[in-house]
Specification:
Blueprint lengths: L1 H4 L6 H8 L2 H9 L3 H10 L1 H7 L2 H28 L1 H21 L6 H16 L12 H11 L1 H4 L5 H8 L2 H20 L9 H49 L8 E3 L8 E5 L3 E5 L5 H28 L1
Antiparallel strand pairs: 1-3, 2-3
Helix pairs in contact: 2-14, 3-13, 4-5, 6-7, 6-12, 7-13, 7-14, 8-13, 9-13, 11-12, 12-13
């Protein structure tokens, strides 16, 4: 789930759903509330641990933390060297995920299709927002933390995709996480905290507010999710599917700045910030990107197949 949450277009909730522990996940998250805090002071830690399904959460967050750091270093390496291949993999994962989520809806009526169209329009509107603008103000970072946790609790909505659209994906899920990793490495290696580096201090502060926002979002959204999915599951999922489809431009590998000419390319969309186009399919780089799109889709197909085996 930690790795999935870092990939735009893939939500950790999908992994939980495929692996068969999604209901237990939401149940455990929803019990992280004021009642749990009161229980800690009145009856002690053991009572709190039992109420929040502590054994499950410890294993879950332990795995998430481990994969989160490892995935961060890997993504940082490839995003700096082969960004188109990374985006191609993301694109393939998104398309395959949307297909399976839509296919699993229990019914189709005008409400589901209308919700899908509304979500798609909202996603398309986001193409007009420049996703490249990074903002490290603590209030905005706190808000990003609340948004990012959605991908852990709601199958189909990727928190990292929203961070990519908001412009803070690299800052929050790559740079700040790597800063914490290098700080811990320095401490364990006896080299101090490395706080003399102002950039590292900035990134660790960003990570702190991002973590606080994630915690607040986890408590809030898990409560809301129980109510929404209980009464409006199909409408909610169909809206989210439309939103993800409409915002595919955030991970489209072939884009160019509007200030640069893209002669001989088939333009498919133009926003105030970017030109989206289809490249020459005879180009070797393009064929490599297509291969990674298929690879990304294949990963989701394998996960879906595994999930079906677990539930039968």
């Amino acid at each position: 789930m930690g790795t999935a949450n870092k990939i735009p277009g893939v939500s950790g909730g999908i992994i939980a759903l495929a692996a068969g522990f999604y209901e237990e996940l939401i149940y455990s998250f929803s019990r992280l509330d004021i009642k749990a805090l009161k229980l800690l002071f009145t009856e002690g830690f053991s009572a709190l641990y039992k109420r929040i399904n502590g054994h499950f959460l410890v294993l879950l967050f332990g795995g998430v933390a481990l994969s989160f750091f490892s995935a961060s270093l890997i993504l940082d390496y490839f995003l700096n060297r082969t960004p188109k291949l990374v985006l191609g993999t993301f694109l393939g994962m998104i398309v395959a995920s949307v297909f399976y989520i839509w296919k699993d809806l229990s019914k189709y009526s005008y409400r589901e299709y209308l919700s899908n169209c509304i979500g798609m329009l909202l996603g398309l509107c986001l193409l007009w927002v420049n996703p490249g603008v990074e903002n490290d103000h603590w209030l905005f970072v706190f808000f990003c933390g609340m948004v990012s946790i959605v991908g852990m609790t709601l199958p189909g909505l990727s928190g990292s995709l929203l961070l990519l659209i908001l412009g803070n994906y690299t800052l929050l899920l790559v740079d700040s996480v790597n800063a914490l990793f290098y700080t811990l490495t320095d401490v364990l290696g006896g080299n101090g905290w490395g706080m003399e580096d102002p950039e590292r201090r900035r990134l660790l502060g960003v990570l702190l507010f991002f973590t606080l926002g994630s915690g607040a979002g986890l408590v809030f959204f898990s409560k809301v999710l129980e109510i929404v999915l209980r009464h409006y599951k199909n409408i909610t999922i169909s809206t989210l599917v439309g939103f993800i489809i409409g915002s595919l431009g955030a991970v489209w590998p072939w884009t160019g700045e509007t200030t640069q000419a893209n002669e001989g390319l088939w333009k498919i969309a133009t926003t105030p910030h970017k030109i989206f186009y289809f490249p020459n399919l005879g180009d070797t780089t393009t064929l490599n990107v297509v291969f990674f799109i298929l690879l990304g889709a294949g990963i989701v197909i394998v996960l879906e197949h595994y999930g079906k085996q677990q539930t039968t």
